[in-house]
Amino acid sequence: MPPRIKRPRSPAPSLDSIPEPPSPHRAKKLKLLASHSIASPFPDFPHPTPTEAAQGETEVMYALRIHAVL
C-alpha cells in the first residue's frame, strides 16, 4: 500500500489581523483608572510612600536573586 499523502495545512490567520472585540467593561475600567491616576484610592493611608515602596521592591528583588543563585 503506498504511503498516504497528507493534505497541506491551511494558513492560520495572524493575530494582528484579528480585531479584538471591545470589552463591555472597558469604559468603566478606564474611568476608574483615570480617577485613581490623579488621587490615591486610599488617601488616609500614609505608607508606603513611593520611596519606601521602591526601596522595598529593591530589597525583595535582591532577596529573590540570592535564593536563585543558591
Overview of this protein structure:
- The protein has 70 residues and is mostly helical.
- It has two helices and no strands.
- It has helices at 26-38, 50-69.
- The chain is flat.
- The mean pLDDT is 76.
Report helical residue fraction. Answer: 40-55%
The helix/strand order is: HH
| Cα radius of gyration in angstroms | 25 Å
Distance between the termini: 59 Å
Largest sheet: none
Uncertain spans: none
What shape does the CA trace take?
A: flat
Question: If you average the pLDDT, what whole number results?
Answer: 76
Fraction of residues in β-strands = under 5%
Q: How many E strands?
A: 0
* Helix/strand structural class: mainly alpha
Give the key terms:
mainly alpha; 0% strand
Brief characterization of the structure:
The chain is built from two helices and no strands. With 70 residues, the protein is mainly alpha-helical. It is flat, with a radius of gyration of 25 Å.
SSE diagram, text form:
Layout: H1 26-38, H2 50-69
